[in-house]
Amino acid sequence: xxxxxxxxxxxxxxxxxxxxxxRRVAKDSLxxxxxxxxxxxxxxxxxxxxxxxxxxxxxxxxxxxxxxNDLFDxxxxxxxPGEDADGAVRLRVTAAQVKRLEKExxxxxxxxxxxxxxxxxxxxxxAAYLHLARSVVRRAERECWTLAGEEHVNPVVLQxxxxxxxxxxxxxxxxNAKTAVGDVLWKPGGER
Length: 192
Known about the structure:
Elements: E1 16-18, E2 24-26, H1 30-52, H2 59-79, H3 95-110, E3 119-120, H4 125-148, H5 155-178, E4 184-185
Antiparallel strand pairs: 1-2, 3-4
Helix pairs in contact: 1-2, 1-4, 2-5, 3-5, 4-5
């Protein structure tokens, strides 16, 4: 259980922060940057949840709540570098979390018409924020891949972020369909 008695510690005033294994690293390190982008994505999903809560459908809000919790798990995973060969039990993102996303994507996609064009971010407010969250998740994925080129990253983290961006895209489409707003489709050269 996490217990926070004080929010500020003054330990980061010189440009360093602590990782989950106790090491101090620069606040602009690749690992801290990736963790920050995951946190940013979680914040945008929180805004999407505010808008999804007003829908007649309860499932989007529940799915997004699970995803927000998963993103905290993912942040904890990235925060503790290294492999688990030392026998320590660490919180890691699992293949089951990735599979759940895939199952939800397939279920939502079964309700949707096939795409005939690229989709522009927009539609219902919840969908628009999900498109924003998707783009932040894509950035988090890129940053985690950059980090993985230099340090160990749980490969399931990379899979989860990849599926999550797909999930948010499909959920945005699903919300637009359920609210009868519809997707905003790209019209190549249509605004010349």
